[in-house]
Amino acid sequence: MSYTSLCKHRNLGEGDMVPFTVEGREILLVWPDGGELKAFQGTCPHHNARLKYGGFNGRTITCTFHNWVFDARTGQGLIPPRCALEEYPLRVEDGMVQVDLSECSPS
User: Fold this and answer.
1) CA-based angle 54:44:88, to the nearest 5?
2) Domain boundaries, the chain
3) In terms of CATH, what superfamily is 3-100?
4) pLDDT in tens, 58-87
5) How would you write 57-75 as a 3-class SS string?
6) Which residues are CB-neighbours of 71 under 8 A, at least 6 positions away?
7) What Cα–Cα distance (Å) separates residue 58 from each residue in 14, 82, 103, 105?
8) How many CA atoms lie within 13 A of 89 on its CB side?
9) What is the pLDDT of residue 105?
10) Residue 46: C-alpha distances to residues 2, 31, 59, 97 (Å)
């Protein structure tokens, strides 16, 4: 695995959604209420709309393009239910949040 640093962990808090572009890919760091920090693809699987322009209420991520809704803890689609956001491996090392894009297909 090859991890890439995104930001300092201390700069994030529960309820945050922060977008990044890494190696040409849109990445979304999401820390859902009562959950763990996650890294998901930053584009909607429907029409590749950037989710950074969408909504996040601490529990769900909403794409503003066609109002698709995803569970922020799992990336699973809620509306519609048979879709999902790709999740990237994530770790915190030396205080830095890092993601691994090596085994994931480009979004």
Assistant:
1) 105
2) 3-100
3) Rieske [2Fe-2S] iron-sulphur domain (2.102.10.10)
4) 999 999 999 999 999 999 999 999 999 999
5) CCCEEECCCCCCEEECCCC
6) 59, 60, 77, 78
7) 8, 22, 28, 27
8) 11
9) 54
10) 28, 23, 20, 28
Instruction: State how beta strands 96-100 and 90-93 pair.
Output: antiparallel
Amino acid at 63: C
- Are the beta carbons of 62 and 48 closer than 8 angstroms? no
Q: Residue 43, SS3?
A: strand
pLDDT tens readout for residues 92-104: 999 999 999 886 6
C-alpha to C-alpha distance for 107 and 93, rounded to whole angstroms: 25
Place of tokens 């109002």: 67
